[in-house]
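Dear colleagues,

As part of the handover before I leave the project, I'm documenting each prediction I ran so the next person doesn't have to rerun anything. This entry is a single chain, and its sequence is reproduced below.
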Amino acid sequence: MSVDIVTFGCRLNSFESEVIRREAEGAGLSDTIVINSCAVTNEAVAQARQSIRRLKRERPQARIVVTGCAAQTQSEMFAAMGEVDRVIGNDDKMRGQAWRQARAAFDVDDSEKVAVSDIMAVREMAPHLVESFQNGLPRAFVQVQNGCDHRCTFCIIPFGRGNSRSVPMGAVVDQVRALAERGHAEIVLTGVDLTSYGADLPGAPKLGMLTKQILRHAPELKRLRISSIDSIEADADLLDAIASDARLMPHLHLSLQSGDDLILKRMKRRHSRKDAIDFCAQVRRLRPDIAFGADIIAGFPTETEEMFARSMDLVEECGLTFLHVFPYSPRPGTPAARMPQVPGGAIKDRARRLREVGATALRKRLASEVGAMREVLIESVTVGRTEHFLPVAISGETPGKVRKLTIGGHDGARLTL
């Protein structure tokens, strides 16, 4: 049996899972399940643990290896699980040597299960060329950056990913071209802190320059999409590309986190409420049809109802379409975990209310699309995505194609034809 990957968390993990599959199979592993974990929330860690137990019950003979951000930050916890055969660190997981060592080290005791190096000592990125994705989707992810030099008070990810480091532009272009030639119609650029791209490279190119280089040198690419960005770091070239190239999709996901200035300061974010609103207005002037998504945390420590209301209001003021709502959960060792906490019931209630506001915003955008002709990427026999990342109910279309289709209606969650 082959190596099976269970991926949690971000789009970056999706790309890395393809590298893991190649390296693990190349090392000769078989009948092995790899859990590529996420550490963003306590819930994400709990889901990984639950999956480990379930998979071991379903496949008792399979070896289970845990890697990813949660493995990097909580390696001993996973090593103590009887179901786990190996714990591999976040940088190590991308190296064939780690998987060859894993094969030779099964059946050791808990103290020897862990193969996790110091992520903060990693200063460079080794480019990995992935020829195709095995999930069958016409959308593929390309890693252009990893790590983060910022220290938001709620975030554990820098300790799971290390310092910011970038993939050279030429290697990124080669990766994009390879995937496009293999039939992936849409490429998503991904990283931990995308807008910090290039600061560690010669000449310090920015994300906008990288985007323009891809669009210039990959003419076979149909659609380019950018994943989550920090709006305060968006550069002039990126804005110019958004305004001028139709192959760059009119959809941005923003790391906003809160709509209240005091909470933003306590989070150690680098933007204000006004910055967020002004950025969305500026981009909308450049690309009037653009759709915005955003991450927002509900129930950050010290957040009052008035502060939370400002996050609710931000949805309308920024014109957000997609909300990714995180109920706050304290991550061990972060400054926010030591701040006065909001009661759990209040956090849950605020997250629910924020999701309801998000659902209303999505329905509003869906309704505005009725009658429009959109270029829809057919992801499967039942689902497609417009340029704005809006889901479309599909039937009778060939996956992988980009089709011009007229939107006939919506069901509150998806567009219909």
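Residues 24 and 99 are 5 Å apart (CA to CA). The mean pLDDT is 93.

All the best with the project,
I.
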